Each structure stands twice: as structure tokens, then as C-alpha cells.
Here is the input.
Amino acid sequence: METRPLVKADFDQIVSVIDHWWGGPTSALAHPMFFYELGERALIVEDEGRMVGFLLGFLSGEAPRKGYIHLVGIDPNYRRRGVGKALYAEFILQAKSHGATRIKAITT
Here is the structure.
């Protein structure tokens, strides 16, 4: 599995699978703002070129900086296989490298 930054095509795919992955109508939580305005920290996990997980997060602008994890989704067929752990670990690593001293999860 590979973790990489999110691109526009990934966001479109997230919107198409999130209701299934979360088991209900939740696509409104994947608002385009999180890609267009805050997408530089968003991550995807792929397995053989197929998206199996995503994390939408951002960094605060004020000091001390904080990383916020807003939305995480894992393909139901990939749960308990380390996808979420890989997403959180990469986000934390990137947040720390950009000066974040705290990480908060504000996700449902």
C-alpha cells in the first residue's frame, strides 16, 4: 500500500464512495472546501492503484500550529489492515515538519 497526497480526481472518488464506506448519507461532510482550500495536507492510501482510504486534514495558521484531522474514510474491505494507522502517521509526520506541536481529530 502507498500513501500519497490527494488530487482532484481522488476527491471526486471520495464523494462517490463515502456514503457506502460510512454506511449512510454523509457526503456533505466531504465538502469541496476541504480539497480546494485545505487539500494540501489531504492524503490517500492506494493498494495496487485503487483508493482504499483517505484523510482530510489541515494545519492551523496561528502559533502554536495545530494539525486537525477532519474526515477519514477506509474502504470496508480494508479495515483492520493498517490503512488508518498509515494515514494518521503520515499526517502527523507532515504536520510536525510544518511546525505543528499538537494534533486534534475533529472528525465524526
